[in-house]
Amino acid sequence: MSSCRLLFTCLCLLSSTALALADPLPSWRDGPSRTAITTFVESVTDENSPDFVPEAQRIATFDNDGTLWSEQPLYFQAIFAIDRVKALASSHPEWKTEEPFASILKGDLQGALSGGESAVISMIMATHANMTTDEFADITTQWMETARHPATGRRYSEMVFQPMLELLGYLRSNGFKTFIVSGGGIEFMRPWTEAVYGIPPEQVVGSSIRTQYVLRGEGPVFERQPELFFFDDKEGKPVAINHHIGRRPILAVGNSDGDFQMLEYTTTGEGARLGVIIHHTDAQREWAYDRESHIGRLGRGLDEADERGWIVVDMKDEWATIYPTK
Amino acid sequence: MSSCRLLFTCLCLLSSTALALADPLPSWRDGPSRTAITTFVESVTDENSPDFVPEAQRIATFDNDGTLWSEQPLYFQAIFAIDRVKALASSHPEWKTEEPFASILKGDLQGALSGGESAVISMIMATHANMTTDEFADITTQWMETARHPATGRRYSEMVFQPMLELLGYLRSNGFKTFIVSGGGIEFMRPWTEAVYGIPPEQVVGSSIRTQYVLRGEGPVFERQPELFFFDDKEGKPVAINHHIGRRPILAVGNSDGDFQMLEYTTTGEGARLGVIIHHTDAQREWAYDRESHIGRLGRGLDEADERGWIVVDMKDEWATIYPTK
Fold it and tell me: Which chain A residue's Cα is nearest to B246?
């Protein structure tokens, strides 16, 4: 080896060492959450630690709405559904007098939602079913590329949380496999989670409607039926984790009581475990809400976090940045 | 670098080159199937090939019964269910007169199966449900460790196909992600697929019964309900692939008409695709059956393989070994 090449090799080694030493969580301020997370990751990845966990078992699950991206003033998928009702209205003259569509078209969201769960289901089925999965993926992709959030003017994919992007990357670089486990629609998320979060489709778990395999002239398609297949919330989250992943996570992150059972299941296993709750405390940079919110209500999680050893992330105090730089 | 260390480095490089050149498919004789498989893998992994497929999209799905392991004289999971009926009989005196249990206990399998689908469902629910997932995993694991196949005297985990183990390894070393997509029970397979096939639980897709998340004194458990959740066969296979993986495979391997739709879905996508049928032709070393078999019936697949470009593996001619050396 020539001395020139040797020097080059040494420089490369030095530079990769420098990279390894760079802070993987620059948007997490020094504080209890950051310390708890890095202490946990260091202990489960250290072969000499009693808490060591083999790589294959380093499963981390993340809620999506309110955990990886914002969820106010409405779940983004609900905003998508409303946008779809408006786009489809001209082909549905009957919607002018039919609820919840009539109220949506008049811009009266309160009125639309007064029909409760059945109104939401009507809206979802009218906008999410009776098309193929490919058609739905195209519609979702186009909406994600063009729609803008009413308050921030950002694309929805730009309303993901920068500290969570860093946490996902940090975990993966420490041998974790990262999964989304969301109450949101599995096929609403899959077209963009890989580009936005680095989470591939096979690691996205969510709610779903029934699909049917149908052979058409152009080849086989999946037709989306107007019938719920699985609702991935509350007790549904651990059930879906068991069904889909088949291993108990060692780390779970959520933000609402809909994530309670996922955190409970994760943190009651043997060995080192970490439960994390993202607490929306930043009315200025994002939103501040918990017990009384119409979305992402968080009460029991706050009450029991301490005794269960879950960490509660104070967004206002602990996050230096909320959204990625555009 | 001292000349001694340089020599050592060179030797290491040479030895890893030698490893890379070793035949990854020693149990596959030279023949059309071996050639089709290696040609396909070389083309989709060659960045300069028009058929190149990025690593993340190299999804390969495998049926289990009759594809990765044997399935005669009965699906091994059915043998497991029969063994369980016998083991549980003393706590179920009513089974002495109740079908299909009475026939099973008399050793009259024909009689037991004469009740058709409802007999099979009774048998599955009586042996697979009303316990926790952990209890079921323990029972499955113990059975896999101790039970022996009636004809070969081998453990069932020793009745996997050596050429398929090599194929799984060859694909993974070429950046493929390998999945099981089986009509068999997802929780019957998961306790042992990682050790036996190198396929982790999160890459096992199968049929399932409903589970419920229940908080007990010792912590949360999943109770297995006597109710079918999903039947992963025929049209169910592509539906489950779409639900579970969310990507279209580029390679699928099956052995019966229950795999037809999985191969159809896989091979009608754009770009390079490979469909593979394992044809049981070896009455001496394994079993020979296809169109008229009571299990793993294969007719349409044989009829249409040629026009669809699927390869049909002749086990007798093309496989130098069937089972791993014990």
Answer: A201
> Which residue pairs from A236-240 have beta carbons closer than 8 angstroms and sit at least 24 positions apart in sequence?
A236/A183, A236/A207, A237/A61, A237/A63, A237/A181, A237/A183, A237/A261, A237/A262, A237/A265, A238/A262, A238/A264, A238/A265, A238/B213, A238/B220, A238/B222, A239/B211, A239/B212, A239/B213, A239/B222, A240/A181, A240/A205
Of B204, B211, B261, the CB nearest to A239: B211
**Contact between A242 and B268 using a beta-carbon 8 Å cutoff:** no
Could you give the domains of chain A?
Answer: 24-73+156-318 (3.40.50.1000)
Q: What is the DSSP letter of A93?
A: G
Q: Which residues of B touch A213 (CB under 8 A)?
A: 235, 238-239, 261, 265
The answer to whether B213 contacts A261, with C-beta atoms less than 8 Å apart, is: yes
Q: Identify the helix (H) or strand (E) that includes residue B274.
A: strand B274-279
For residue B97, the Cα-to-chain-centroid distance in whole angstroms is 35
Three-class SS state of B120: helix
Facing residue for B265 by CB, picked from A200, A211, A220: A220
Give how far A175 is from chain B: nearest CA, Å. 15
Find, in chain A, the residue whose alpha carbon is nearest to that of B191.
Answer: A246
Residue of A nearest to B241 (CA): A202
Q: Is residue A54 within 8 Å of residue A174, measured between CB atoms? A: no
Judged by DSSP in three states, B175 sits in coil
Residue of chain A with shortest Cα separation from B238: A213
User: In this structure, are residues B189 and B206 in contact, taking their beta carbons and an 8 Å threshold?
Assistant: yes
d(CA A81, CA A98): 16
How crowded is residue A246: how many other Cβ atoms within 10 Å of its Cβ? 22
Residue of chain B whose alpha carbon sits nearest to that of A212: B239
Residues of A with CB under 8 A from a CB of B: 1, 6, 56, 59, 133, 177, 186-187, 190, 194, 200-204, 208, 211-213, 215, 219-220, 222, 229, 235, 238-239, 242-247, 261, 264-265, 268
Element (H, E) at A165: helix A162-173
Is the confidence metric ipTM above 0.90 for this complex?
Answer: yes
Whether B212 sits inside 8 A of A239 (CB atoms) is yes
Contact B265 A186 (CB under 8 A): no
pLDDT tens for chain B, 326 residues long, are 445 555 555 444 555 555 556 999 999 999 999 999 999 999 999 999 999 999 999 999 999 999 999 999 999 999 999 999 999 999 999 999 999 999 999 999 889 988 888 888 899 999 999 999 999 999 999 999 999 999 999 999 999 999 999 999 999 999 999 999 999 999 999 999 999 999 999 999 999 999 999 999 989 999 999 999 999 999 999 999 999 999 999 999 999 999 999 999 999 999 999 999 999 999 999 999 999 998 999 999 999 999 999 999 999 999 999 999 97
| Residue found under tokens 């072969």 | A47
| DSSP character at residue A28 | B
